[in-house]
């Protein structure tokens, strides 16, 4: 393997998973993800009509595009479980900037986190993993 190939393989491994989350811990001890953050704004009635339209249409699209593995979020079995996109799920990740724009418009901070090993995997499919973060395991 050449150095260039090795470097590319290392870079791909280092960013195997991507998560968009609050830099602040939630009362449940996790960093809430981008969908939770925008869903909270929607529940609180804080979205503009345009933002609400984007949110509703894209949440519906995500619901149809991938599974929400509810068993993986069992608080007793998997304390602190959170979802991460696989870096290869570009068709899902490319819609996230619209959510980030909504958060920015409302002054809600959100960061992008990349990891090759975000925690103990409790669910996996072709586009995502749900993990119990190492610090919660």
Radius of gyration: 16 Å
Task: Please list the strands of the largest sheet in the order they lie side by side.
Answer: 3-1-2-5-4
Q: Which bin fits the share of residues in helices?
A: 25-40%
Reading the helices and strands in chain order gives HEHHEHHEEE
Mean of residue pLDDT values: 88
Individual helix count: 5
Low-pLDDT sequence parts: 1-13
Comma- or semicolon-separated keywords:
alpha+beta; 5 helices; globular
Architecture overview:
The protein has 137 residues and is of the alpha+beta class. The chain is built from 5 helices and 5 strands, in the order αβααβααβββ. It has helices spanning 3-14, 34-43, 49-65, 90-93, 96-105; strands at 17-21, 82-86, 111-115, 119-124, 128-133. Strand 4 and strand 5 (128-133) form a beta hairpin. The longest helix is centred in the middle third of the chain and has 17 residues, at 49-65. It is globular and about 40 Å long. Mean pLDDT is 88; it is low at 1-13.
Topology, pairings included?
Elements: H1 3-14, E1 17-21, H2 34-43, H3 49-65, E2 82-86, H4 90-93, H5 96-105, E3 111-115, E4 119-124, E5 128-133
Antiparallel strand pairs: 1-2, 1-3, 2-5, 4-5
Helix pairs in contact: 2-5
What is shown here, in short?
The protein is α+β, with helices and mostly antiparallel strands and 137 residues long. The chain contains five helices and five strands.
């Amino acid at each position: 393997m050449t150095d260039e190939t090795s470097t590319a393989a290392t870079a791909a491994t280092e960013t195997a998973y991507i998560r968009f989350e609050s830099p602040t811990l939630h009362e449940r001890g996790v960093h809430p993800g981008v969908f939770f953050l925008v869903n909270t704004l929607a529940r609180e009635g804080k979205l503009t009509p345009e933002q609400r339209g984007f949110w509703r249409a894209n949440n519906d699209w995500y619901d149809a595009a991938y599974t929400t593995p509810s068993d993986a979020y069992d608080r007793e079995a998997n304390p602190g479980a959170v979802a991460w996109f696989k870096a290869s799920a570009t068709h899902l990740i490319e819609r996230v900037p619209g959510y980030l724009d909504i958060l920015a418009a409302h002054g809600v901070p959100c960061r992008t986190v990349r990891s090759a090993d975000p925690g103990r995997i409790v669910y996996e499919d072709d586009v995502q993993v749900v993990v119990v973060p190492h610090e919660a395991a």
